[in-house]
Write a structure and sequence with these properties.
Blueprint (H helix, E strand, L loop, with lengths): L1 H12 L18 E3 L11 E4 L2 E4 L4 E2 H5 L5 E6 L6 H5 L4 H7 L4 E6 L5 H10 L6 E4 L1 H6 L9 E5 L5 E6 L7 E4 L2 E4 L14 H20 L3
Parallel strand pairs: 5-6, 6-7
Antiparallel strand pairs: 1-4, 1-7, 2-3, 5-8, 8-9, 9-10, 10-11
């Protein structure tokens, strides 16, 4: 649990308040991430040898994914986020299995952690979606606040953001699309902030299914 606490501190130290209307319809901001092929913590990738900086493993960028010309669904998440991460993310597995041939799914972890720690987390959070580890540039470019995860971004085949969903498992879920910002009816009750809202989770999964179908049918 000690490393989880440290990760959350690092994540939240880079967090910003979510701003409406700055992403929808825009080209999805590029950001850097690490794949499962890299076993190192982001801070340990670079090393100096004979006076020159070198990298232990390859860094990837969202632009590489967008070049495939397929719809993209990004799920930004954090280890230790409850109930969102532990109870919502596994529900996305059925959508991944259903659409993985037509849509690029990315479960982007917002923390400075090693692949070994990711594998430990996946034992607790069974997730079939490919997991990547991002840097603070993703947090900044996507306006990700410290209480916003899980944070889903729906990107059209031409690389533009069509929709953003914050906290899909919560009564305070926000869905931002071309029609504006919509808030699910509900009241935040601090005393019950860790309650599991199975009905809301199921409703969100159904909505996400519909949004993915929209991406697949999308035409310029």
């Amino acid at each position: 649990m000690r490393y989880l606490t440290l990760l959350l501190v690092l994540i939240f130290s880079f967090s910003y308040a979510y701003k409406e209307g700055v992403l929808i319809g825009k080209k999805a901001p590029n950001f850097t991430f690490l794949g499962s092929d890299c076993k190192y913590d982001p801070d340990d990738i670079y090393y100096k040898e004979n006076g020159k900086w070198k990298k232990r493993c390859k860094e990837h960028h969202l632009s590489e994914i967008l070049k495939k010309g397929k719809p993209v669904v990004i799920v930004f998440w954090a280890i230790g986020d409850r109930p969102g991460t532990y109870y919502f993310l596994p529900k996305l597995n059925k959508l991944y299995e259903k659409y993985k041939d037509k849509v690029e799914f990315m479960a982007v972890l917002l923390s400075r952690t090693s692949q070994k720690e990711v594998e430990k987390a996946k034992k607790v959070i069974p997730l079939k979606i490919p997991v990547y580890r991002a840097y603070s540039d993703a947090i900044i470019k996507y306006n990700i606040g410290k209480i916003d995860v899980p944070y889903l971004v729906f990107i059209t085949p031409d690389g533009k953001i069509k929709r953003v969903i914050l906290r899909p498992e919560s009564p305070m879920r926000y869905v931002e699309d071309e029609k504006g910002l919509h808030k699910r009816n509900g009241k935040f009750d601090k005393a019950h902030r860790f309650d599991i809202h199975e009905d809301l989770i199921e409703a969100s999964i159904n909505d996400i299914d519909k949004y993915i179908q929209e991406l697949i049918k999308w035409k310029k």
